[in-house]
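Below is a complete specimen:
___
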Amino acid sequence: MTEAVRWGILGTGKIARAFATALRDTPGAVLAGVASRSLEGAQAFGAEFGATACYGSYQALADAGDIDVVYIGTPHPMHVENAVMALNGGKGVLCEKPFTMNRREAEKIMALAREKKLFLMEAMWTRFMPALAEVRRIIASGEIGSVHQVTADFGFAGTQDPLHRLNNPELGGGGLLDLGIYPLSIAAALLGPVADVQAMALMGETGVDIQTGFTMTHEGGGMSVCSCSLRARTPAELTVSGSLGQVRMNTMFHRAQSVTVTTADGARTIDTPYLGNGYVHEAMEVGRCLKEGLLESPGMPLDETLHLMGVLDTIRGQIGLRYPSDAL
């Protein structure tokens, strides 16, 4: 590959705009192409973010010869089709969360990436934020003792429009896949693989979950208590508690700019600023992996993504949340 990482962005929605914004602040990253379902849409996006090329179909971007890795920012149910398309075009893939709609779809993408020896990663950007690295350092130092519990929530008062993607089962709507996946993933990052999960939910009129709570035990012996909501603006903080104290990721854990450690000796706060809008760090990690010839990131390995997709399937089974893709 060239010295610069040549990115393609598939999709031109809100999350794709956030990632394109991040690429401006990512060292060695070039937006080499953007694809929309219409050429006009791609050109408008490309003009705003300085894309080298614009494509009026996703397939055209997948077939382009000057792109190293494709960021997939389309609606959830399209991830599997779009990832397969990009991989078959010889491109590495960074696929937005949720990685797929279910574990079966995730297995399909991963098998193809491994067969073709191409890079693949779930875009769980919080895994690469400085705040999480600092929390891990504090845990490893022993300052809060042996860790036993994580509590985390993520919620906001979303639209109740039944046609909006958050409420539309055809588009993978619901709180769990959009919001609950964040506390789930970070709890597993801190406490290890999930051994068991128990969930409850309130379901909306369209058949998707509008509030979900789930408690997990982890193979390392710890427990996490997590929740998500499309109706309540929650603190969105995460606290890791140990035998000697706790460390809290402040003011929305997924974009925390500081963490606070509290023990019997008192409390102290450590600043953890991030670059750009936060997505920069995962883009930098992808670039590092590509330049080092890695096919997956140790910070978000494929086997862990697969495991967590299975946990999501289990939670959905417990709360009665089904999507059209489950019937395929």
